[in-house]
């Protein structure tokens, strides 16, 4: 695939591919990359369109903000053009509402696939759905001006776009509860100190830092990174003995592969 091949560009989402690195860009800076069902469908499509050669995916937002969260038009009686409003959906059958939310969540789930490593490059506001989209990625590099906030609770809602699980894993239950229940801002220093951010850089260095990290991730053999990611992502749900077993099995696969004995 040629350098910077444009694979998708629709509904506020652009996917480009440069060999083993793909970049997903939120492209509506005039609305601070506010999110909508159409954008979520485009994000889901981007995941499905990733070529098999891609090993690292960088997620970024154009403009001063990564994403200011859900577009408030979702709660207006008219909703978005061609879309039911969230209020209308709430009045429908419970099973249909559940299925619709599950569909929206698909935009946030593929970033943790074992065959890729995803990096969110986050500047400015990352609020609500924007915070959860950053949390959907494996790693986060943030600009010094970053402002994370989980505002759903203050709107009478709950975070429902897969962000609660990684948030608790990263910062612990007590801090996650406090962040969500108060809706306060988490700035760069706290984000790095608590594990929300892997690295903090000046805003004008954010894109370069994302590409530098991508290059570092590509230095190791792909299969070793895939196996290591699977080991680490499953560690929380395994016992110590189960993790030991998983390590032995993974290492056995790697050694057989290196010896040319893979199945």
Could you describe the 3D structure shown?
With 263 residues, the chain is of the alpha/beta class. Helix content is 43%, strand content 17%. It has ten helices and ten strands. The chain has helices at 37-49, 86-91, 94-109, 129-136, 164-171, 173-182, 188-194, 206-217, 222-235, 240-258; strands at residues 5-10, 13-18, 21-26, 56-61, 117-122, 125-127, 139-143, 147-149, 186-187, 199-201. The strands form two sheets. A seven-stranded mixed β-sheet has the order 1-2-3-4-5-7-10, with helices on both faces. A three-stranded mixed β-sheet has the order 6-8-9. The protein is globular. The two termini are 29 Å apart.
How is the topology of this model organized?
Layout lengths: L4 E6 L2 E6 L2 E6 L10 H13 L6 E6 L24 H6 L2 H16 L7 E6 L2 E3 L1 H8 L2 E5 L3 E3 L14 H8 L1 H10 L3 E2 H7 L4 E3 L4 H12 L4 H14 L4 H19 L5
Parallel strand pairs: 3-4, 4-5, 5-7, 6-8, 7-10
Antiparallel strand pairs: 1-2, 2-3, 8-9
Helix pairs in contact: 1-3, 5-6, 9-10
Give me some keywords for this one:
single chain; 263 residues; alpha/beta; globular
At a glance:
This protein has about 260 residues and is of the alpha/beta class. Helix content is about 45%, strand content about 15%.
Percentage of residues in DSSP E strands = 15-25%
- State Rg: 19 Å
Number of strands: 10
As a percent range, the share of helical residues equals 40-55%
Largest sheet: number of strands, sense, barrel closure: 7 strands, mixed
Distance between the termini: 29 Å
What letter string, H or E per element, gives the SSE order? Answer: EEEHEHHEEHEEHHEHEHHH
Poorly predicted segments: none
Lateral arrangement of strands in the main beta sheet: 1-2-3-4-5-7-10
Q: Overall mean pLDDT score?
A: 94
Q: What is the helix tally? A: 10
Classification by helices and strands: alpha/beta
Overall shape: it is globular
């Amino acid at each position: 695939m040629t350098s910077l091949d444009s694979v998708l560009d629709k509904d506020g989402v652009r996917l480009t591919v440069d060999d083993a690195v793909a970049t997903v860009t939120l492209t509506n800076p005039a609305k601070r990359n506010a999110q909508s069902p159409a954008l979520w469908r485009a994000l889901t499509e981007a995941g499905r369109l990733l070529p098999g050669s891609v090993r690292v995916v960088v997620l970024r937002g154009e403009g001063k903000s990564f994403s200011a969260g859900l577009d408030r038009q979702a709660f207006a009686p008219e909703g978005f053009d061609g879309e039911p409003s969230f209020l209308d959906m709430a009045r429908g059958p419970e099973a249909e509402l559940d299925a619709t939310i599950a569909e929206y969540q698909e935009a946030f789930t593929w970033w943790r696939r074992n065959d890729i490593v995803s990096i969110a490059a986050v500047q400015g506001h990352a609020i609500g759905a924007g915070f959860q989209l950053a949390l959907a990625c494996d790693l986060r590099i943030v600009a010094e001006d970053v402002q994370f906030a989980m505002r759903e609770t203050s709107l009478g809602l709950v975070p429902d776009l897969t962000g609660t699980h990684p948030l608790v894993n990263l910062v612990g239950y007590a801090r996650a509860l406090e962040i969500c229940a108060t809706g306060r801002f988490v700035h760069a220093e706290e984000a790095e100190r608590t594990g929300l951010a892997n690295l903090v850089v000046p805003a004008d260095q954010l894109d370069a830092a994302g590409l530098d990290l991508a290059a570092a991730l590509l230095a190791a053999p792909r299969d070793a990174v895939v196996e290591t990611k699977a080991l680490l992502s499953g560690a929380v749900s395994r016992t110590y003995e189960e993790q030991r077993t998983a390590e032995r099995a993974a290492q056995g696969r790697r050694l057989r592969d290196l010896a040319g004995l893979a199945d």
